[in-house]
Every structure is written in C-alpha cells, then in structure tokens.
Amino acid sequence: MHLNSLPFFLFLISGIFCQYDYDGYYAPQPDYGYAVSMFDHSTAVCAPECTCPISYPSAMYCDNLKLKSLPIIPPGIKYLYLRHNMIEGIEEKAFDNVTDLEWLILDHNHLENSKIKGRVFAKLKSLKKLHINNNNLTEAVGPLPNTLDDVQLTHNKISKINPNTFEGLVNLTVIHLQHNQLSEDTLSGVFKGLNALLYLDLSFNKITKLPLGLPPNLMMLYFDNNQISNIPDQYFQGFKDLQYLRLSHNKLTDSGIPGNAFNISTLVELDLSYNQLKSIPTVNEHLENYYLQVNQINKFPVSSFCKVVGALAYSRVRHLRLDANNLTRSDLPQEMYSCLRMAADITVE
C-alpha cells in the first residue's frame, strides 16, 4: 500500500461522460456536438447563417453568431445547436417545421421564462435532449414532451419548479439542475413517477434539508455545495441501486448522521469532504471510493469500515482520502491494513 494523492475518477454511463475533481471543482460539461470543422458544408437545406455538415445533414449549427432570435429552421433538421448567442425568447411557432427535432441545445444565451411562448417544447414529439444551461431562467421550463431522456438547466436562477413540470416523463434518465437557487421545499415531490431516472445533480443550490420524494431507482445523486446539516434516519436506504453519492461542501456534523446512514450495499463512491465531521461514518464493506478530506476527523476506528476482519470479511475500499483532518500516519492502527487490504491509495497528510 502506498500513500499518495488520488487521480481523477472517471466513469461512463448512458452515453454521458462525467468528470469530477475531488477537491470540489467540476470539469466542463461534455459537448454533445459534432466537430463541425471536420466536415465540408452540405448541400442539404440549411439556414444561410448556420452550418450543416455534409456527414450529418440533419444537424444544424448556429453557434457564436450573435443571434437575438431563432433562425428559420428547415424541415429535416433533428439536431439543433444555438449556443453562445443572445437569444432572449422563443416564439410559439418557432419549431413548427421541425416537430421531429431530437436534440435542442440552447446553452449560453439570454433566455427568460416570460419570453418563451406557449407550449413550444411540448410540440416536439421526438425531443430527447433539451439543454438550456447558462441562461436567465427563474423556473424550470415546461410543459415538456414525454420522449425526453436528458434535461439540463444548469447555471440559471431557477428557484421554482412547477409540480407538474416533469410529470409523465417516463423516459427521463438524466437531470442536471446544479448552480441554481433551489430549496428543498421547491424540490419535494417534483420528481415523483420518474421511474427511469438514474442521474440527478442538485449541487450548488440552497438546499438545507434533503428533499422528499426522490425516485428510488437513482444510481447517481449529487448534493455538493449546499447547506445540508443532517441526514434523516433511513433516508438513503430507499435507493436500491444507488452507486454514487456526493455531499461535499455542506454542513454535516457527527450528530447529524445516523449510525447506518451510509451502510448501503450498492454504494461504490461516497464523498463527504469539506464538512464538519470529527469521526468517520460507518460504510458498507462494498464501498470502493471514500472521500473525507477537509473535515475535523481525529480518530480512525477500523469498525467504520469492517464489522469483523477475516479471510472473506474485509473492506473493498480502494481510494480513501483523509487529508486536511486532525490525523497523521502514526494515528492509523495496525489492524487497518487487514481490513483495508484492497486499498491502493490512502491519503492522510
């Protein structure tokens, strides 16, 4: 076993490539677009100010054009990119020619809820991805078509979600709502019935308590950079497939964490870094990545990782971060090495 710093942990799920820096910074979100520079212009019908690559004639790129309104969108376009413009609103008939649109990417504009007219998104009966990151939204957009599988509304000013916004979205697997102004009262119950939802990111909001009514099928659940101080008893036991759970940069204390709060057999990664913990919360032996850096931890009980130690009884932790706590290498008990026999990286100082 060697003691060194932890590299980035990368994972791939449902076609989404997610990066996470364990010091609390998020890598840029993926660009779902094709590299336009790789292709010549197509001879397909295309808005004159935009680009439709010959290899992907159903994709139209209108990025970085200082547009203040949507261009005329020709029939046959299925993937529409309108990033980095100055668009403030969307007229109700904007997509009447392309009701079979599948991807609509509107990141980095000036969109406001009051200027998005009527049921403009609900008309898109084939829409799968809707990205409106980095805009001026104050509430989640809707109504939405039930074909959606990926909704991203990050870096807005959203403080309100209508209880019916996500109702009936049976195909929705991914929701990004980080960097908004959401509270637990706004969130409770709004994800009810989303039985396909696997990924929910609520980081960088104003959540003080964990919201009620989250779908039990979630695999990835992120609450980083909120103001959560306690975990309700048995809160996470209702998630039967939860693998990645992040609660870094909150206000968690020992008294706010019930004894078995994180004893979840499916959990692969748990991030409790940048909180106010003085002891190590107990975890299931199947956990592989455990991040506790920048707390106030001053002791290392082996029982937090192993109830018993034996030939078949040991922790599967591979990466453990305890740096920036009140621990040194000399504080690590000898029996730790039998319990954490799978560990590749343990960072203490």
TrEMBL record:
Cell location: Secreted, Extracellular space, Extracellular matrix
GO cellular component: extracellular space; fibrillar collagen trimer
Swiss-Prot/TrEMBL GO biological process terms: positive regulation of transcription by RNA polymerase II; positive regulation of transforming growth factor beta1 production
SMART domains found in the cross-reference section: LRR_BAC, LRR_TYP, LRRNT
MF GO annotations: collagen binding
Every LRRNT domain range: 45-79
Keyword field: Disulfide bond, Extracellular matrix, Glycoprotein, Leucine-rich repeat, Proteoglycan, Repeat, Secreted, Signal, Sulfation
Pfam families associated with the record: LRR_8, LRRNT
InterPro entries: Leu-rich_rpt, Leu-rich_rpt_typical-subtyp, LRR_dom_sf, LRRNT, SLRP
SUPFAM superfamilies reported in the protein's UniProt record: L domain-like (SSF52058)
Gene3D superfamilies in the record: Ribonuclease Inhibitor
Keyword Transferase: no
Keyword Metal-binding (UniProt): no
Signal sequence region: 1-18
PROSITE patterns (alphabetical): LRR
Superkingdom as given in the UniProt entry: Eukaryota
Predominant location: secreted
Family: Belongs to the small leucine-rich proteoglycan (SLRP) family. SLRP class II subfamily.
Subunit relationships: Binds to laminin.
Record's protein name: Lumican
Gene for this chain: LUM
